[in-house]
Amino acid sequence: MTEKVNDAYPQQSAKLAFRDSVLALGETRIIDAIIMAVFIVRLPAPGLGLPINDLAGLALIGIAAFRRPTRSLAGAYWYPAICAVILAYLALNALAAGVEQSDIDRGGRIFIMMVMGAFIATGRIDIASALKGFALALLVNVPLFYAGVAPDNYGGLLTGYLGDKNVAGLTYAVVTVLILLLANRAWVRGTIVLVGGACVVLTDSRTSMAALAGALIWLVVAKYLGPFWRICLAALIYAGFIFAETNLSTAGDYATTREGSDALRERIDAASLEKTIAAPWNGYGLGEAVTQVAGDNWLYHNAYWGLITEGGYFLLIAFLSLIGLAGFQFLAKGPTSRDARIIEAASIVVLLCAFRLGEVFITQSAFIVIGIGVAIAARRNQAWEQERAAERVAEAVRLGSLMPVAKHTSF
Prior knowledge:
Blueprint: H1 30-37, H2 52-64, H3 78-97, H4 101-122, H5 127-146, H6 165-178, H7 186-203, H8 206-221, H9 227-248, H10 254-257, H11 259-278, E1 290-293, E2 296-299, H12 303-327, H13 338-353, H14 364-399
Antiparallel strand pairs: 1-2
Helix pairs in contact: 1-5, 2-4, 3-4, 3-12, 4-14, 5-6, 6-7, 6-8, 6-13, 8-9, 8-13, 11-12, 12-13, 12-14, 13-14
């Protein structure tokens, strides 16, 4: 991986070009790749009632729990601290209102996502291997879908084993950005963007298309800008995202083919916003980000509103803190890197999609981004501390405050 995100597997030099490609097996931890590939299968497991991808997540952290970490969280201890605060807050909320099955199910899922993020950050789950498996599964999903093997739930729009076109769009967009961590050659990176972008377009998820475009703009432009202009760029990307979302809904065939579904979405949004505004300071509890329209229950189409409804503004701020600290490296010291910029771009996909999709922050895709971001932030902080320590020693030697230790001589 570029700049050794995975410190356990340093990049070897003088290898053929194929060794730099995404599909090179080389040092891949096969079991991580295989299990992560199953993350795309969102079908229910027969007789268990749980999605197969959630069971795969449980299997992966179960295996990783018996491994030794290859990286320290020193410099990023805010991650377990924030996670502990979130879990404690949700537990107290549930106890105050009366524990229900939704609290257990959804709270358990949040806990599993957080553990997965921690295992990615500490190297118990190999980042490079996991991303290779995830990306390869998404790639294979495409021909299986068009061959009629994978499920088709949206009238020919690319979904496959991901089940939902918006979930598919989010997943393809996030992984398209993340897999750039493994690409060291320009032609490989260009191929990834072209193939990944095409897959996002095939899902027909307008939100994901606009989010991926914004992320790629950030990746190309932000490295040349200082803090103030990066804020301006973020504002422009958000404005462009909203413009694309609004105008794509009335462009070309969308004006007729999506008119009914867009009208329903507007009614769902109106009812969701009304419930969000009426929520108490600590929310209604986990599993309450649903609203009733036309006699049916519908999940929110806004992940920000969902967190407010379930846990109030405190829960929203806590999750945004994870994204800010891991994804945007807000507390990381020392110079930035290409890896850090890629994680920023992936976080932009998550944040933008969350405006129009209901379940984004508590997903495997989001916590893969967070886990990798924590790993990069910890590495940057540790490198900075080592450099400062070396500078202090060098300065002390220069000033003569550190003297060679004389050998003891007996008389």
